[in-house]
Every structure is written in structure tokens, then in C-alpha cells.
Write a structure and sequence with these properties.
The complex is a heterotrimer of chains A (514), B (448) and C (132). By secondary structure, chain B is an alpha/beta fold. Chain B has 13 helices and 15 strands. In chain B, β9 (292-296) and β10 form a beta hairpin. In chain B, α3 packs antiparallel against α11 (329-366). The mean pLDDT of chain B is 96. The chains are: A alpha/beta (514), B alpha/beta (448), C alpha+beta (132). At the A-B interface, α1, α2, α3, α4 and α5 of A face α1, α2, α3, α4 and α5 of B.
């Protein structure tokens, strides 16, 4: 294979997982729109009609929504079906995305979430006729408390980031009740971006602390950093390198000594469920990502849910409402909590997501440990089969994810982003690139327990093949992907002159469609 | 276990390849004292059938089949099974955030369409790919106004959804934002005289909801006229967006926060819903949340990418416009499909039905002795009534007849006891309205 | 490559002094490290800046870099061309893509900055570090 392959030349490698196939083209729905078409009818009006200009007054009335689509049901079905075929998905194969925990989304969860009597319930309806919903919330709380070894929970936060904020608000409220909210929160340089962003919204200052040479918290020097004005340390465990912070108990002790608290970002809980409990190793407050560890579907970017688990000392500060069980066995939403931090969102949370997480937990029961074991097994199997070809910046044992770097391939001008794009040609989604920040050229790989040995082997083969290509045919990798329906898109133009909506006039300026 | 695709022999093979004797060895980095020796105390494992049974039992313990006149930020509207079938396609349901644009064009195209629809509805220039819900969208809108104006006071109408205001207060507390409550008039609209008294020159924004929590439409042009000369912004929130089918869009607002649940998303006991944030083009770089933008590849093919990412936490970290990462993408998709099916005519027709049915219900209820309308301002599908006795007592009796009654305002407005907000949508049949009215009449005829 | 009459900072800004006016920009090295510039955020006319303080940011698709002011002064002009054509910073960072002009508080502040040859040596060292 010459080193000067062009964009359209077939790649030399045999790609076992994927092949090209005719996929439908499709424009925007607005481009199919024509007056008089409609996709849905509603039953006829059974009361006298009113004239909006009269009912509302001329100044409030609107003619119609200009530019709104007018298409038939079949066109809508074709449109979105065609669009869907342009996506990769867990249902198609592995997402090796580190820290995302892209596991199987069980279909029974979708079924139960849609049951009449669950999907239909209004959050403000009386508690007497919401006992089923409340019990679901209460049962999930109990399960999550069991799994994390903490004492109490809130299910209200809508995502991990909001969970982080909620946890920080509770830390602040607790410290205020002790006389001094303090000023700073320590964050390791390996942290996910939501951590520092959440700290700022909680009114604290971020103090970045450098990881040690092993990529872990510098416990030896931690004491120096935990001054009187430090409210908490936010850490992820296992950390974003997939490595367990072995000295976590010491870390907790250093903080507690100074009256500070330990926040754990639970994004990597998939390495711990059934194996170890954060409540046992000194964590005061943590969030979980139900759309990661608990299998609720990512849906192209959300929804999620970020329940927060706390030790007893933080229980008074939980957001309202708190889901409780009264002495008579009835479930209720308790609003009368004078020390609560308040609400972080309307109603009690992303109920539909919480319900799915409960269904997942019930499917496993105590057997959840097996899922964790398989997740760690898969990650280590992949690590073992790739560590001869890719640079491993930190050699500590990996748990559920492994982080390589592009250091070796960089010598041939191929970087992590290039290899991630080439992975698309092999029928996989990319791994996580450029995170954590402490690993330049990071390649973060988390297979999850949902991957069979076959899928893991296909992934290993793909990565090994790409490593060989980086050596022998770097241009092929640098110009990847080659078999997707669009090539690398011009992100610079998209940022310089953002086009963020369709407008009729744009039609004339369009490049031809894919 | 059916979710785990490995046979015992495969596990064995893999352990051998790794070079360890057992999977326990892979957990050596967890200090022994923390490693659990016993299984967790959890219910299960349950088969698929048992899981379904558990949830069906829970469903039977709720208000299945009840009639409802409850709105208050969450609305029963038509939903299409067609939309639901599309949303359940694995390529949508089980796909990730579209960071790898080449294999996410389905998601990105749909987001672009969602953004467009939200702009068309609200009359704004740009909308993002969704926030968590209306309450957090409003909160983020206020934070945006703070950043844009450099001011930290906001004048918030008391007629904004009480839970939205609670969320705003939780966030505002630690960001130095001062919330000034603005009352309402006899019409049920924001009291403009109170605005004039408040120091607008120090205010980042006036915050109003329309239709507001009492169901009344606010006069947004007048609020904008008050805000803008003083250098303040107008932030509007909309909890019932079906109103936009017949009510003029809030074009004079600078930032619009909206709850999209009414567009084909089930009430589902509080979530997931879909928050919308829309604003003027000049403010786009201060807008939080993801944005899908149109561009081309090297061959000139149109495609879509996430753009202006430098606003977001994964790049800007502590200086980000927000901490938001995961949003409500699947529900934005559901709303998009729903709105495409409904279309221009369908949305208008739906809105007209809401207008008509609410007025019919109001007329029937006003015939009942002791029941009178409060707040004379124009309304869409919710209106406020005063009753001769406690709303809770009336609602308790209605519940026995399998009717969920109107929202008791006394819960959050101590000065408004015995008043409730009635919601009627296109899904409420005439028969149901008449049944409810007859029930209320009967209940009020009983001695206290 | 690097004009002799400019002075340079360790953060890759340059300043050109003309009597009591200072013109400030970022260096060719900086624009190269950044990649394609998509947006520049600059202070308002009249803003008072201190040496070492932030004067704004420059953004590429995936990164944001803070720009630090080499000298103290009041902003008198901001470059009008950059709002619509931020790519000028990649094309002509030392001339037409100047960022701001200041009325200097103290022209002597430039004494602590590097001259062209010192800066060229500095970035040569940096390049070695990167490939090490």
C-alpha cells in the first residue's frame, strides 16, 4: 500500500465488523413542507368554537407559526427513520467511550416506563393517588443507598452535573450550620469539566490540585492544601484514568480532620457496584449517573438523572421534596424541611429515568456484582491486548476503563483524534479523546460489561490494525473517516459563522445534500 | 444473566489472556477492608415478566383512568404513537451525544430541526439543543441576563410558577443575585406600577411568565418598554407552549425559557421533560447548552456539528456559561417529531380547541352558585376560580369520583386560599367537563 | 519574522510602542499553537488594563486562551476587522490583526519584556520541550 493513499482509495485492512451499504439521503423536514399537508388529526371539537381574536383580544392573537412544517405522517416516519440510520448506537455495537459507561439499555425498561398509570401521572396530583409512583422512588432510593453504603438520598437532580451542584450546595449548607461555609473546593486536574463548573455555581472558588506521578491524588501533600478555607475535595473514584484511589481512606481522614468534606463524583461507579461502597471509605456525599451505571438510555445526549447520596450529617439539607415513608406505610413527599437547600428543579425529578434505573436494578438484584466484574474483566482484557502497541502513561492497574496515549503514533504524525476517526471506518464509535487533561493525546477506553468477548476481540483487532496503519500508512489514518456518509466536517466555519437554524432563504445557498 | 453476553468458558479464556487466575485479582487495587464479602441487600433478581408485574402493580396504585383538570406547568395533550415508535428506534434511543459528527448526523439533523422549530414558535433568533426543563431553563436565562448586563438584581413576577421561582432562588443564593418579588393586579397580570417603583436601573431583567401560573397572559410589549430603556432585559418563560399556536410569540423578550413537555412528552410524574432556551442572535455566545450548527465537509456535503463549544464546561470548565452536560436530547427529538406530525395547521387547531374548551368549562363552572372567576385578564387554557370553601376539601371529594381537581393556589399563595387554577385541554371531552361541573355542584350543595 | 521594534511576553503577546500609544497583538507562535481562530473577545474602549491582567480571550474550535496585557493603559481602539474575520489573526498576527491600542500609563513597562531575538530563543526552547 503506498503511503500516499487518497481519500477514495479502499483501505488496505480487512474490516470485519462493518461494510458499506446503501443508506437513504434526506433533507430537512422544512424542505418537504407544503401548505395543506398534515401528519396528525385530533378529534372534532365538541364544544362551541371561539374566535381567538375575540377571546384573547387582537393584541394577543397570532395567525399561525410561520415556517412551521406541513408534512404527512408517512413523510415524518420516513424522515426520522432515514435520519436514524445515519447514527451509530449501542444497539449496533460497542461504544468504547471512557467514563460514559455505554451499556445495554434494556427494553423492558422502556415498556414499563410507558405503562398507563405511570407515564400518565401528574406530579402535582394528590399523594393518595400517587402511591405507586412514590413507592418506585422510595424503592429506588433504598437500592441506591444499599449499593453506595450511604445513608440518605435525593432523586431530584436531572443529571450528573446538577447532582454535583446539589451536593456542593448541601456541603455549603452544612458548613454554614457549623458556622463557616468556607471558600474553596479542591479539584484534581484530572477532573471532568462539570466539576469546576458546578463549584462556581455553588459560590465556591476552584482550587486545582496537581495529580502525582501516578495520576492520583497527591495524598502526601494533601494536608498542605486542605487549609481552613477549604470546604471540600471533589474526586472521582476510580479516577478518570480508571484507577482506584487506594489511599482514599487517608484522603477522607485528612479532610475530616480539618472539618472539610469529601465529595465523590460517581461517574465511574460501574467499577464498584457490588464490590465496594463509597460510604465505607469515607465519602460524605456523592452523585450517581443513572444514564451511565444504571443503564438508562443516552438518547443522543440525554435525559439523565444524577441522584445524590449523603451521609447522615447532610440529610437535613436534602432538596425538597424528600420521599419518605410514613409510619402507616404510606409514601409521601415531604416539603417541610427547614434546613433544606431548596429545590434544584421543578417536581421531584426525572421520574421516567428513575423508573428505568429501578427496573435495571431489580433485574440484577444482588447479582449486580457480576456486571461490575465483567466490566472490569473486559477493560483489562482490552488493555492486555493493546499495551504492546499503545503507550500506557500510567501503569497502575485499571478497573473498568483504560487510558492509553497517542505518544507512539505521534512520531508518525498520527494523533488520538485521527485514530478515533479511523475507528469509525471499522464500524465502532470512537473512544474518548483528549480527556483526561493530564494525559496529552489521551485514548480513554471503557467497554462496559455489555460487550461480548467477540465484540471485544473485534475492537482489539480494529485498534491493532489502526496501529499498523499509523506505522505504514499514516495518511490513511489522518484523513479518516473514509466510509461515513459525511467526512470530517468544517468545524471552523461552523464556529466562525454559526448557522443555527433553517431559514427559507438558506435553500439557495446550500451545498448539495449528502 | 441475560444482559451479560459471556459464557463461563469465555470469562475463563479472558482471565487466562490477562494472566490472572480469578476476577478477584483484578480488584486488588481496592483495599481489602473495603471489598464486600457478602452480596448487597437488594431486591431481585427478577425476570422480565416479574419486572413488568412489579411496575404494573405500581401503576394500579396511582390515578390511572382518572379525569383531570390539573395543569400548573404540566399538561395532558395529544400524543402520537407514531412519534413514540420513532423515538424508540435503537439508533435514536441508544445513541450517544453527537460529538463524533460523522456517525451522528441523525441526531444532529434532528437537533437542528428542533432548534429551528423553537425559534419559529418563540419568534427568537436562536435556540439551544435543550435544557433539563422549564424551571432550570428559566434559571439559566436569569444567569445569562446577569452575565449580559453585569447587574445582579432581578424583578420576578410572583405569577411565575412557584416551583420555578424556588429553583431560581436556590441557584441565585450563591451567585449574589437578588430576587425582588413583583406582585400582580386584579387582572392577574404583573403589576407594572410595582415595576416602576423598583429600581430598574440596577436590574438585570424583568422576569415574567405567559400564560402565567394563574393562566393569565402577560402584556410583554409593555414590560419590554419598561425594561429596555433602563438597560434591563426582558426574560419570559412559557410553561404551556401550546398557547403559541394562537398567542403571539414573545418577540420583545430578550431571552425565552420554555417547558416543552406539552409537545408530546408524557406527564410521567414530573419528568423527564424538555427545557428550551431561545434568545437573540447577539446573545448566543452567552447562551448555555449545546448548539447544533450547519456546515459542510471537504466534498461540499451539508452536515451538522455541535458548535460554539467553547461556551461549555468541557472546554471552559470553571468559566463556562453553565455546568450543563447531559441535556434532554431524546425528549427534544420526541417534541420535534410530535410537532412535525402536528404541523402548522394541527398546532393551530389544537390551540383553538384548548381556547374553546376552557371557555366552555369556565361558563359551566360560573353557573354554579358560589363559584366565581378571579383575574379578568385574557387566558389560554387555564383560569382561576374562587370557591366558597376550601379547595382541598372539594378536591378530596372530586378524587372519590375519580377526578383530579384544579390546582389549589393556597399552597404557594397564602393570600389566595379558596382559589384554584382549572386547566382544560383538547383531551378533556365535553362529557368530562360536564361530569366535573355536576360533581362540583353536588359537592358544594352538601353541608360543610 | 518577529519585528525588531516589538516587545514580547512569555505568554506570546507583542506590544509596539509609538510615543504614548501601544498596539497589542498575539504572536505568530501563539496563532500557530491555537489553530484556526474562530472568535476573539476584546475589552471595550475606555477599559483600564493593568500589565499582566487579562485583556480578553481568543478561541479556536476546541480551546480558549486568555490574552494577557503586556503593559498598563486605557483602551483607545479595538480592531474592527476581527469581529467578522477572526481568521486574520492566523493570517497576519503581527500587523493587520492587531487586537487593541492603548494610551500607555507607563512606557517604561516594556523594559521588562523580551526583544525579538530573546523571544525567538524562548520559543525555540519551547519547541524543543514539546518534541522531547
Amino acid at each position: 500500500m503506498s503511503s500516499k493513499s487518497t481519500l477514495n482509495e479502499a483501505p488496505a485492512a480487512v474490516i470485519r465488523k462493518a461494510a458499506q451499504h446503501v443508506v437513504q439521503n434526506e433533507g430537512l423536514i422544512f424542505e418537504k413542507s407544503a401548505p395543506g399537508k398534515r401528519g396528525m388529526e385530533i378529534p372534532p371539537l365538541d364544544v362551541p368554537a371561539v374566535n381567538p381574536a375575540v377571546a384573547l383580544g387582537r393584541e394577543f392573537a397570532r395567525e399561525d407559526v410561520e415556517g412551521f412544517p406541513e408534512v404527512s405522517e408517512i413523510e415524518v416516519v420516513r424522515h426520522f427513520t432515514r435520519l436514524s440510520t445515519w447514527n451509530y448506537a449501542i444497539d449496533l455495537g460497542m461504544y468504547p467511550l471512557g467514563s460514559c459507561t455505554m451499556k445495554y439499555n434494556p427494553r423492558v425498561n422502556e415498556f414499563v416506563a410507558r405503562l398507563e398509570g405511570l407515564a400518565s401521572e401528574h406530579p402535582e396530583q394528590p399523594g393518595e393517588v400517587s402511591q405507586g409512583c412514590l413507592r418506585i422512588l422510595y424503592d429506588l432510593q433504598k437500592c441506591l443507598i444499599s449499593i453506595t453504603g450511604m445513608d440518605a438520598a435525593t432523586l431530584q437532580p436531572a443529571a450528573g452535573a446538577q447532582g454535583e451542584l446539589t451536593g456542593l450546595l448541601m456541603i455549603r449548607a452544612y458548613l454554614e450550620s457549623q458556622g463557616n461555609p468556607r471558600k474553596k473546593v479542591l479539584i484534581p486536574d484530572s477532573a471532568h469539566g462539570t466539576n469546576p463548573a458546578s463549584v462556581v455555581i455553588a459560590g465556591y472558588e476552584v482550587q486545582n490540585i496537581k495529580s502525582n506521578a501516578q495520576g492520583q491524588i497527591d495524598t502526601d501533600h494533601l494536608r498542605e492544601f486542605v487549609k481552613e478555607d477549604v470546604a471540600a475535595l471533589m474526586l472521582t473514584n476510580p479516577n478518570t484514568l480508571g484507577v482506584f484511589e487506594e489511599r482514599i481512606a487517608e484522603i477522607a481522614a485528612v479532610l475530616h480532620d480539618r472539618g472539610a468534606l469529601l465529595y465523590m463524583d460517581g461517574a465511574n461507579m460501574n467499577a464498584l457496584a457490588g464490590i465496594a461502597r463509597p460510604g465505607d471509605f469515607g465519602v460524605d456525599v456523592m452523585h450517581l449517573n443513572l444514564h451511565k451505571t444504571f443503564s438508562t438510555p443516552h438518547g443522543g445526549g440525554g435525559p439523565g438523572a444524577g441522584p445524590v447520596m449523603v451521609r447522615k450529617i447532610l440529610e437535613p439539607f436534602l432538596p425538597i421534596p424528600v420521599v419518605v415513608q410514613r409510619e402507616n406505610g404510606q409514601y409521601a413527599l415531604e416539603h417541610n424541611r427547614p434546613q433544606s437547600v431548596g429545590r434544584v428543579r421543578a417536581y421531584c425529578g426525572n421520574f421516567g429515568v428513575l423508573l428505568r434505573a429501578l427496573a435495571y436494578t431489580l433485574a440484577y438484584g444482588p447479582g449486580i456484582r457480576q456486571a461490575t466484574e465483567d466490566a472490569v474483566l473486559n477493560a483489562n482484557y482490552i488493555r492486555k491486548n493493546l499495551e504492546d502497541l499503545f503507550d500506557l502513561p500510567y501503569s497502575l492497574p485499571s478497573m473498568h476503563e483504560v487510558v492509553f496515549s497517542d505518544a507512539r503514533q505521534k512520531a508518525r504524525g498520527v494523533n488520538t483524534m485521527d485514530m478515533a476517526k479511523r475507528l469509525l471506518d471499522y464500524g465502532f464509535h470512537a473512544y474518548t479523546t483528549a480527556f483526561p487533561l493530564i494525559v496529552p493525546g489521551a485514548m480513554m477506553i471503557e467497554p462496559t460489561e455489555s460487550e461480548s468477548k467477540e465484540e471485544c476481540d473485534l475492537f482489539i483487532d480494529a485498534m491493532r490494525s489502526i496501529a499498523a496503519e499509523a506505522e505504514m500508512n499514516p495518511d490513511l489514518v489522518k484523513s479518516a473517516p473514509h466510509s461515513t456518509r459525511v467526512g470530517r466536517l468544517d468545524e471552523v466555519a461552523a464556529a466562525r459563522k454559526p448557522i443555527l437554524r433553517w431559514r427559507p432563504a438558506d435553500e439557495k445557498e446550500l451545498a448539495h445534500d449528502a | 444473566m441475560r444482559y451479560l453476553p459471556k459464557s463461563p468458558s469465555e470469562r475463563h479464556e479472558m482471565l487466562k489472556a490477562i494472566g490472572v487466575g480469578s476476577v478477584e485479582e483484578l480488584f486488588q487495587s481496592v483495599p481489602e477492608k473495603f471489598r464486600l464479602c457478602a452480596p448487597l441487600d437488594l431486591p431481585g433478581p427478577l425476570s422480565e415478566m416479574e419486572i413488568i408485574q412489579y411496575f404494573q402493580n405500581r401503576a394500579a396504585e396511582n390515578a390511572r383512568g382518572f379525569g383531570s383538570f390539573l395543569g400548573a406547568g404540566v399538561y395532558r395533550h395529544v400524543r402520537s404513537v407514531t412519534a413514540d415508535a420513532l423515538v424508540q428506534r435503537g439508533e435514536f434511543l441508544t445513541s450517544y451525544t453527537p460529538y463524533q459528527a460523522e456517525i451522528s448526523q441523525g441526531t444532529l439533523t434532528a437537533i437542528f430541526e428542533f432548534q429551528t422549530l423553537m425559534c419559529q414558535l418563540t419568534g427568537q433568533d436562536v435556540a439551544n439543543a435543550s435544557m433539563y426543563d422549564g424551571s432550570t431553563a428559566l434559571t439559566e436565562a436569569v444567569l445569562m441576563a446577569q452575565r449580559l448586563t453585569g447587574r445582579s438584581r432581578v424583578l420576578v413576577a410572583r405569577s411565575v410558577h412557584p416551583e420555578y421561582r424556588q429553583v431560581l432562588a436556590t441557584y441565585a443564593r450563591n451567585l449574589g443575585i437578588e430576587i425582588v418579588d413583583i406582585g400582580y393586579t386584579q387582572c392577574g397580570q404583573l403589576d407594572r406600577a410595582a415595576i416602576e417603583k423598583a429600581k430598574l436601573g440596577d436590574a438585570a431583567a424583568i422576569v415574567a411568565q405567559s400564560p402565567n401560573f394563574f393562566g393569565v397572559l402577560e402584556e410583554l410589549p409593555a414590560l419590554a418598554e419598561a425594561a429596555h430603556p433602563a438597560g434591563a432585559l426582558l426574560v419570559t418563560c412559557i410553561a404551556e407552549p401550546v398557547s403559541l399556536g394562537v398567542v403571539r410569540p414573545p418577540t420583545e423578550a430578550d431571552i425565552v425559557a420554555m417547558e416543552g413537555q406539552a409537545f408530546g412528552v408524557s406527564p410521567s410524574y414530573g419528568g423527564p421533560y424538555v427545557g428550551v432556551l431561545a434568545t437573540r442572535e447577539k446573545f448566543v455566545r452567552q447562551m448555555p447548552g449545546r448548539l447544533a450548527g450547519q456546515t459542510t465537509d471537504a466534498a461540499g456535503r451539508r452536515g451538522f456539528v455541535l458548535t460554539l463549544a467553547t461556551r461549555e464546561q468541557h472546554i471552559r470548565r470553571e468559566k463556562a456559561t453553565s455546568n450543563i452536560c447531559t441535556n434532554e436530547a431524546l425528549y427534544a427529538l420526541a417534541a420535534t417529531i410530535h410537532l412535525c406530525l402536528l404541523g402548522k395547521e394541527g398546532l393551530r387547531e389544537q390551540a383553538l380547541h384548548n381556547l374553546a374548551k376552557a371557555r366552555f368549562a369556565l361558563a359551566e363552572l360560573e353557573k354554579i352558585p358560589g363559584v366565581r372567576r378571579v383575574f379578568s385578564g385574557p387566558f389560554f387554557n387555564e383560569f382561576t376560580l374562587e370557591f366558597p370553601r376550601s379547595v382541598k376539601m372539594i378536591n378530596d371529594d372530586l378524587l372519590r369520583e375519580k377526578i383530579i381537581g384544579p390546582y389549589p393556589l393556597g399552597t404557594h399563595y397564602p393570600e389566595l386560599t379558596k382559589r384554584a387554577v382549572v386547566c382544560v385541554t383538547e383531551t378533556t371531552s365535553r362529557a368530562e367537563i360536564e361530569r366535573m361541573c355536576a360533581a362540583v355542584r353536588r359537592i358544594l350543595e352538601r353541608p360543610v | 519574522m518577529y519585528p525588531n521594534d516589538y516587545r514580547y511576553t512569555k505568554d506570546h503577546e507583542w506590544v509596539k510602542v509609538d510615543g504614548s500609544t501601544g498596539t497589542i497583538g498575539i504572536t505568530d507562535y501563539a496563532q500557530h499553537e491555537l489553530g484556526d481562530v474562530v472568535f476573539v473577545e476584546l475589552p471595550k474602549v475606555g477599559a483600564q488594563l493593568k500589565a499582566g491582567g487579562s485583556l480578553g480571550t481568543v478561541e479556536s474550535v476546541k480551546a480558549v486562551s486568555e490574552i494577557f496585557c503586556p503593559v498598563s493603559g486605557d483602551v483607545t481602539e479595538i480592531n474592527p476587522a476581527l469581529a467578522n474575520a477572526p481568521e486574520k489573526i492566523n493570517q497576519d498576527p503581527h500587523n493587520s490583526a492587531w487586537l487593541i491600542k492603548l494610551r500607555l500609563s507607563d512606557a517604561k513597562e516594556t523594559a521588562g519584556l523580551m526583544d525579538a531575538s530573546a523571544y525567538e530563543a524562548y520559543i525555540a526552547e519551547k519547541s524543543k520541550e514539546h518534541s522531547a
